[in-house]
């Protein structure tokens, strides 16, 4: 088994994920895995970074596919005995002018952004080594979507005692309410992406709490973050930040020094903890 440190970034064949891998290749003292659901797109991204003199490694990962997640888990366990840095970056968003019905957008968006990200966490968090760093890429949109929820939902999502099971039930209810056409009446905002990112932020708060309870002495730090509004295929060419600028906060959280005990369980934007 290798004693080399290892960092893994999901959805990193392009956009912010690729920029995170580029930065980690320069700053992280170990192996850095660029992952992609499509091996062809992944290998092309690896080749692009190699042209720049960087040496990322590649592993296939489709976060929507539990077998793919488990194959990566088994590979990392076998080769490295665990993980030092995990960045959950993979995500999707329907374009504003997409004509797909809201119920479809809700189901598809929640499937990847919340349920698949949770599956990655379920499989990979037990592998986190002491002093490990976990970064869940959420969005400022999670905060505006939270503000658009009913008071009752806001209280649940801000609760310090909400469980992962309760969160899963709420995310499932949102999809069901969208299918029945009653999501607004039930207190949800009119944004599937926003609700999916509420899920990512709240999941991060819950997971950080569980780490405090179960692995206090291991000094693992886990946070959610917003990269800012970034020029990628997802956000379009008008966004103010380059992918490299978008990578700054996730990379800062991924490389928090071993003597840091904060931030942990926070929502971080521009390297600053924001209120939830
Ligand atoms: P992007 O350019 O569209 O890249 C998204 C990446 O995620 C791609 O590599 C994509 O792979 C991958 N992906 C999607 N579904 C996947 C799956 N099932 N399994 C594995 N990989 C998957 O988007 P981005 O702007 O870089 O976004 C990265 C993250 O930042 C997302 O979580 C997004 O929600 C968040 N974010 C972005 C902004 C912004 O302004 N751009 C703002 C706030 C938050 P394919 O190439 O195969 O599709």
TrEMBL record:
<keyword id="KW-0597">Phosphoprotein</keyword>
<dbReference type="InterPro" id="IPR002347">
    <property type="entry name" value="SDR_fam"/>
</dbReference>
<comment type="similarity">
    <text>Belongs to the short-chain dehydrogenases/reductases (SDR) family.</text>
</comment>
<dbReference type="GO" id="GO:0005737">
    <property type="term" value="C:cytoplasm"/>
</dbReference>
<keyword id="KW-0521">NADP</keyword>
<protein>
    <recommendedName>
        <fullName>carbonyl reductase (NADPH)</fullName>
        <ecNumber>1.1.1.184</ecNumber>
    </recommendedName>
</protein>
<dbReference type="InterPro" id="IPR036291">
    <property type="entry name" value="NAD(P)-bd_dom_sf"/>
</dbReference>
<dbReference type="Pfam" id="PF00106">
    <property type="entry name" value="adh_short"/>
</dbReference>
<keyword id="KW-0560">Oxidoreductase</keyword>
<keyword id="KW-0963">Cytoplasm</keyword>
<dbReference type="GO" id="GO:0004090">
    <property type="term" value="F:carbonyl reductase (NADPH) activity"/>
</dbReference>
<dbReference type="InterPro" id="IPR045313">
    <property type="entry name" value="CBR1-like"/>
</dbReference>
<dbReference type="InterPro" id="IPR020904">
    <property type="entry name" value="Sc_DH/Rdtase_CS"/>
</dbReference>
């Amino acid at each position: 088994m290798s004693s080399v440190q290892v960092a893994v970034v999901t959805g990193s064949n392009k956009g912010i994920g690729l920029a995170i891998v580029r930065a980690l290749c320069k700053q992280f003292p170990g192996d850095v895995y660029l992952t992609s659901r499509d091996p062809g797109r992944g290998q092309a991204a690896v080749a692009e970074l190699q042209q720049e003199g960087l040496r990322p490694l590649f592993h296939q990962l489709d976060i929507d596919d539990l077998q793919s997640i488990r194959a990566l888990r088994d590979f990392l366990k076998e080769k490295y005995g665990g993980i030092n840095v995990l960045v959950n970056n993979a995500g999707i968003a329907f374009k504003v002018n997409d004509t797909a019905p809201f119920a479809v957008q809700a189901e598809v968006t929640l499937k990847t952004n919340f349920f698949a990200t949770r599956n990655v966490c379920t499989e990979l968090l037990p592998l986190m080594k002491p002093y490990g760093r976990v970064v869940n890429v959420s969005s400022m949109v999670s905060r505006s979507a939270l503000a658009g929820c009913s008071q009752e939902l806001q209280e649940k999502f801000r609760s310090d005692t909400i469980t992962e099971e309760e969160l899963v039930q709420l995310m499932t209810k949102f999809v069901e309410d969208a299918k029945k056409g009653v999501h607004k009446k039930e207190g949800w905002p009119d944004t599937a992406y926003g609700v999916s990112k509420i899920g990512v932020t709240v999941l991060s708060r819950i997971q950080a709490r569980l780490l405090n309870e179960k692995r206090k002495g291991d000094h693992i730090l886990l946070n959610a973050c917003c990269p800012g509004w970034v020029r990628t295929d997802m956000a379009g060419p008008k966004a103010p930040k380059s992918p490299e600028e978008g990578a700054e906060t996730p990379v800062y959280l991924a490389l928090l020094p071993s003597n840091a005990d904060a931030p942990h369980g926070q929502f971080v934007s521009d390297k600053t903890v924001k209120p939830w």
